[in-house]
Design goal:
By secondary structure, the chain is an alpha+beta fold. The chain has a domain of 92 residues. Helix content is 50%, strand content 15%. The protein has 4 helices and 3 strands. The chain has a 3-stranded antiparallel beta sheet. The longest helix has 55 residues. The protein is rod-shaped.
Length: 150
Amino acid sequence: MRQLNATELNRKKRGQATVELALGMIFLVLLLVGVADVARIYSEHLAVVDAAGVAARWSTLAPTQKGCTYPAPYPNEAAVVAAALGPTLVADLQPTVQVIQQSGPDSVRVNVTYRHVFLFGLIDYVNNSFTGGSTMPGVISTPTVCPPAP
């Protein structure tokens, strides 16, 4: 077997270090993207729960007062959720709204099921449906007369 001189040995060590760096960087980048994806899941969930709360509040209002509290009268809870989420999140999450009447008078629960694409679209075959919900108990106080338009 042939002996390696110092120059050849250094060249092999540098090549080995480059390969190790390339392999290590793959895992570091996947870890970074995974952390960003978890943050995005949390942010989306907070937005969905907030939109479900707005829809639950809207649902408990008396029919004549639904147009008073919001700038535009909405036909149903799904429209309220869509307005609260905004067009970008509605397109990304594709939410579906389920309204459940609770046991109390005018008590309602709004569940919003939405879709999340993992790792920014790299993994799409995973069961990726999540649900966020909010309950509004009883009748809340609302104005009896709509305020005049500004």
